[in-house]
Design a protein that fits this description.
3 copies of one chain form a homotrimer. Chain A is mostly helical and about 230 residues long. Chain A has one domain (about 5-205). Helices cover about 75% and strands about 0% of the residues of chain A. Chains in contact: A-B, A-C, B-C. The interface of A and C includes residues 38, 49, 54 and 70 of A. Chains A, B, C: Keywords: Cell membrane, Membrane, Transmembrane, Transmembrane helix.
């Protein structure tokens, strides 16, 4: 019985370690994506750090506020150090890239796959219903990038591309929750969720996958600025 | 004395039931308004669901975070199911409407009237001062729609129309608080607040009611992009 | 020993008094800056109050949510009264100004200097690491103005001007924390942090100080709307 308890404690620690690793990588990757938008806007070094940091920790902060826990970076400043290092490195390295936009899209895709897993994990660990856990995964994955795009005045936030985006986060979070329900090792759960979410998004980027969209009737638009 | 306690418990349950009903209806109505903006932007089905859900629960989530309680939808997934059903239905039904923009404006008006009541109620129930309860009503009513319009890149958020909008939410929340102070039945409180807020907004939509606005001096503008 | 306890209680009260004063002034100053943007957009009186209030309390609300305490204005409605009075006064007084834009920039600079101090103070008082306290200072200082500029559809948020802005908040918060570590009287700590932050921003406004920015390679842009 003591052995059981120790084993379960051991498992909890393993989960915490894997999820923290995925979470920190997502933070770094999103911070880079934020700094790449700052590069496109020709900002100065400290604005790189600010945009990178807000993009990096934005999704996790919203997740933690909604779940009623203090955002991780308040007690673990490592998260901020990661954002600062990632942003400063990008300030110097961005000009070496042949396309900042392509790098941004791919960094964002990696981050979405990872944050979908940690968002769903943290909600599920608190006993939330599956639909809530999936939404937490999607919000965690989408919010940092949305803040980044709104803050910097991007015309077309990545989130609303014709290509699948929210859909990839939904798939990643769902696959993670299924593997979790099957009680597979935590590395498999996290890797499976990430691969499903990132894989779908990657396919969408490369092959232009998209879901059928709503088509407005072909008719003059109404509304104050010509909207229908 | 036991009878008194039971009566008061009964009243609390009645309040909870009425307010929850109004809150859920506001969520559905705002989700539809979000999905209608998604229709104007020709998004895909899952983006409809995402925009609809964020618009539907946005105001209530901010309200609950500020009041220090866990957002309702985390523990009651019904709220999310409502958003999903409303968004998906709108995806199919939107093309049947003769004007999506007019439907959006009216759905938004109904939601504003309802969320003004539930925002003010939740703050007042925690013993907040009247001015705080009114602001909570206005923020709850305005935030989801503001998120919707900012997320989707609308040029002129409904909130800042020439027509009264924040004013309608202020009136709705205030009337609710007066009826509450008079200790009228909860159905009367909620209906009175809703009718005042929605009625004022409806009049503004139909008759173009507006408050006098600030007029800038007629003079060339200064500031970096020609602002005064 | 009782004398020690009383003395320390006395000091805590002095800190609370000074910080509350700085915080309330920052709220008033940001509310005015919000109302000045409302003036540029020719809004009505109640929209002035709404934009002014959200700008005034926005930074402090985010700070308090992240630190896990109830936003101050929920329990102290004085904060809201300050915002209302500041916004209404601006509605009448704005046309007396020779340049609303210049007034906005300066009000914003004063607010940034003050909120950088109170943001850093509240985080440090909870035992946060210096890097966390500095970020809290910057976020508190930047968030209200960012909300204001995003809400009102400003093309170039002040935050991302070529002139130093985030940098001024970082300096103000850092100087405050150093003076705090030196255990100087709280008035000196607060005044030192404010003067450093506001002074740097003021110099930037007057003399156009800026940090070197990232320069994009001179090459046609890629990405969906001509981005690189």
């Amino acid at each position: 019985m003591l052995a059981d308890t120790l084993l379960s404690l051991d498992q909890s620690l393993a989960v915490a370690r894997v999820i923290t690793l995925v979470d920190m990588t997502a933070v770094a990757v999103f911070a880079i994506s934020g700094a790449l938008v700052a590069a496109r806007r020709e900002m100065d070094l400290l604005s790189f750090v600010f945009v990178g940091t807000v993009t990096g920790i934005g999704g996790g902060t919203l997740r933690d506020l909604i779940l009623g826990v203090r955002p991780v970076w308040v007690t673990q400043p490592d998260y901020l150090v990661i954002c600062i290092v990632a942003s400063v490195t990008t300030f110097w390295a961005a000009r070496l890239l042949s396309s900042r936009y392509r790098a941004l899209v791919w960094m964002d895709a990696v981050g979405v796959g990872m944050y979908a897993v940690t968002g769903a994990q943290k909600a599920a660990a608190l006993g939330a219903a599956p639909v809530v856990s999936v939404l937490m995964g999607v919000m965690t994955a989408a919010f940092g990038g949305l803040m980044r795009d709104i803050m910097c005045g991007e015309k077309s936030p990545l989130l609303f591309n014709r290509e699948v985006y929210a859909t990839a986060a939904i798939l990643g979070a769902s696959v993670y929750l299924v593997l979790r329900a099957l009680d597979l090792p935590v590395e498999i759960q996290a890797a499976g969720g990430f691969c499903a979410g990132f894989g779908l998004r990657a396919g969408a980027i490369v092959f232009g996958w998209g879901l059928p969209t709503y088509r407005r009737p072909a008719r003059p638009l109404d509304g104050p600025d010509g909207r229908d």
